[in-house]
Write a structure and sequence with these properties.
Layout: H1 15-36, H2 41-68, H3 74-90, H4 94-98, H5 100-138, H6 143-155
The structure holds fe (ii) ion.
Fe (ii) ion (FE2) binds next to α3 and α5.
Length: about 160
């Protein structure tokens, strides 16, 4: 499936990451469309640059979460990001941008890749992030439980 649009099922429940995935698809879709409409190389180069910036921003945020959650898939997840970054940066090459058909095909491949990546790596990471947050909420003492402790510490 050639995917160039973010859709609800891809949401991970982590607002920053979801917004960045959404923006990445927005730019990818524009790049795909611009390649089809014979836009100038400067327009394509600008979109490819935006795409590289968003990939960088997105992966930096995720990589912080990978470190924080001590993700057991960290190594393969980071390798996937590195490979994807490389592919996105390659798009900024004028010779790559000049071949419109190839550019459109690459944009479609990147869309498919990101959808698979979200399912295989980002969703398990999001589950770990939410799981790590639950004990903080669950173990927080309710106010009525704090009162005896407060009385004891005032009395002593
Ligand atoms: Fe990721």
């Amino acid at each position: 499936m050639n995917l160039l649009n973010w859709h609800e099922e891809m949401a991970l429940g982590i607002e920053d990451i979801d917004r960045q995935h959404y923006m990445f698809y927005e730019i990818l879709g524009r790049l795909h469309e611009a390649a089809g409409f014979e836009s100038s190389i400067n327009v394509l180069k600008g979109l490819a640059g935006d795409l590289a910036c968003y990939a960088s921003l997105l992966f930096r945020g995720e990589e912080n979460l990978i470190a924080l959650t001590q993700d057991p898939n960290a190594c393969s997840h980071l390798m996937e990001h590195a490979e994807f970054r490389h592919r996105v940066v390659e798009l900024e090459d004028v010779n790559v941008l000049a071949n419109r058909d190839s550019l459109r095909a690459t944009a479609e491949e990147l869309g498919d890749w990101l959808e698979n990546h979200i399912a295989q790596f980002d969703r398990p990471l999001a589950r770990r992030v939410r799981k790590n947050h639950e004990p903080i909420t669950i173990t927080r003492p309710v106010p009525s439980m704090e009162l005896p402790w407060l009385r004891e510490s005032v009395a002593s």
